[in-house]
Amino acid sequence: MPNSERASGRRFDHDYGVTTHAVLFLTDLEPEAVGDAGAHATHYEAVPVADFRALLAHVPHEAIERSTFVDVGAGMGRAMLLASTYAFRQVYGIEVSPSLYEVAKENLAQARVPTRRCNDLRLVRDDARIAQYPPGDLVVFLFNPFDAEALRATLASIAGRRHAGETWILYHTPVERAELDGIANLTIVAEETYGIVART
Ligand SMILES: C[S@@+](CC[C@H](N)C(=O)[O-])C[C@H]1O[C@@H](n2cnc3c(N)ncnc32)[C@H](O)[C@@H]1O
């Protein structure tokens, strides 16, 4: 990670009064609790603040206002806290690791969010591959949480949600982006060096 990203991550933690800056491997944390998900997971790292905002800048304001933001692999909650500064209907996070879930829960409860626009934040401890996703329009955020097989299962669960609406996918470090090709009617809206934005 470049020094500038590390510095802005530390500044985020300082300004919001939280701890999100860390690099951790799930299998080192709690192999039994995460089970099979650990074999498919990458590692925990918080999203670079500027990249998150730049990806979200491709989503029109009207789409944000009618959507639930979903962080697939919420980690310590940085992306959820950043999303709460936008006018989403709800911010929803799914995290499989019990200890990261606990840290995120504490971070969400105690954060000083400078310009909060969404107050409805929900965090669940679950496996994103088989989780229930909120109905309606979604902005789905993925910061390279897992391998192709887990991504395929997760995309199928999202597509199969009740009362599905428009789905935006913001995929940072999209190493398994070929999996998106399997989604019907997918439009690539933007491609940056660090991530892609797509819509169905
Ligand atoms: C690179 S971190 C991203 C953290 C957060 N989204 C952010 O941007 O700050 C990926 C996260 O995905 C979680 N994860 C991996 N596999 C998962 C699964 N099957 N279900 C839910 N979370 C998972 C990891 O525990 C980790 O916290």
Structure description:
It is a single chain. The chain is an alpha/beta fold and 200 residues long. It has a single domain, classed as Rossmann fold (3-Layer(aba) Sandwich). It has 9 helices and 9 strands. It has helices at residues 3-16, 26-29, 31-34, 37-40, 49-56, 61-65, 78-83, 98-110, 148-159, and strands at 23-24, 44-45, 67-72, 90-95, 121-125, 136-143, 164-172, 187-191, 195-199. Strands 5-4-3-6-7-9-8 form a 7-stranded mixed sheet. The longest helix is centred in the N-terminal third of the chain and has 14 residues, at 3-16. S-adenosylmethionine (SAM) binds next to strand 2, helix 7 and strand 4.
Notable traits:
200 residues, alpha/beta, Rossmann fold, two-stranded antiparallel sheet, 24% strand, globular, binds S-adenosylmethionine
Query: What name does CATH use for the topology?
Result: Rossmann fold
The portion of residues forming beta strands comes to 15-25%
Choose one word for the global shape.
Answer: globular
Bound molecules: S-adenosylmethionine
Quaternary: single chain
CATH architecture: 3-Layer(aba) Sandwich
Mean pLDDT: 95
Number of domains: 1
* Termini gap: 32 Å
The tally of strands reads 9
Rg result = 15 Å
What sequence of helices (H) and strands (E) makes up the elements? HEHHHEHHEHEHEEHEEE
- Strand line-up in the sheet with most strands: 5-4-3-6-7-9-8
Count, helices: 9
Helix proportion of residues, in percent?
Answer: 25-40%
- Uncertain residue segments: none
Largest sheet data: 7 strands, mixed
Give the secondary structure arrangement, pairings included:
Elements: H1 3-16, E1 23-24, H2 26-29, H3 31-34, H4 37-40, E2 44-45, H5 49-56, H6 61-65, E3 67-72, H7 78-83, E4 90-95, H8 98-110, E5 121-125, E6 136-143, H9 148-159, E7 164-172, E8 187-191, E9 195-199
Parallel strand pairs: 3-4, 3-6, 4-5, 6-7
Antiparallel strand pairs: 1-2, 7-9, 8-9
Bound molecules: S-adenosylmethionine.
